[in-house]
Write a structure and sequence with these properties.
alpha+beta, 27% helix, Cytidine Deaminase, domain 2, 143 residues, binds zinc ion, single chain, 4 helices
Length: 143
């Protein structure tokens, strides 16, 4: 789902702490709509495209566990489906744990679409890390 708010990124700079807080607040609201009856671990994500559009995602679990979808995957799917191809910023939060980080599969998924900055919740102010920090030697396809 496309959010009405836009985050105007001058370029690929990291979001400010204020922007990061805003993204986490929005992701928290999205996490309330997660479908997580099996894990009770609700996660929300906001994907910010290179045009500044924001797309929401929440985890969508399934009785057949591998069929479930992470919040970051949901947000990425929404952004890509809209026509975006670059997602410089991804914000991720859980209602059920502080400081949740994307799983390995989502880290690799984010490499595909140019995620540079990942906004995470921490005890005090938002933590902003690079995808390179979380996945230093990602898989790349070479022909
Ligand atoms: Zn994931």
């Amino acid at each position: 789902m496309l959010c009405s708010n836009r985050l105007e990124l001058a370029h690929m700079d990291a979001p400010s702490i204020e922007e990061a807080s805003e993204l986490l607040n929005r992701a928290r609201t999205v996490a309330e709509r997660a479908y997580a009856p099996y894990s009770n671990f609700r996660v929300g994500a906001i994907a910010v495209t290179d045009s500044g559009e924001q797309f929401e995602g929440a985890n969508v679990e399934n009785a057949a566990y591998p069929t479930g979808l992470c919040a970051e995957a949901s947000a990425t799917g929404a952004a890509i489906t809209s026509g975006a191809r670059r997602i410089p910023v991804m914000a991720v939060i859980s209602l059920d744990a502080v400081g949740v980080v994307p799983c390995g599969q989502c880290r690799q998924r984010m490499v595909e679409f140019g995620v540079e900055w990942i906004v995470l919740e921490s005890e005090d102010e938002p933590e902003i890390v690079t995808l390179q920090d979380l996945l230093p030697r990602s898989f790349e396809y070479w022909e």
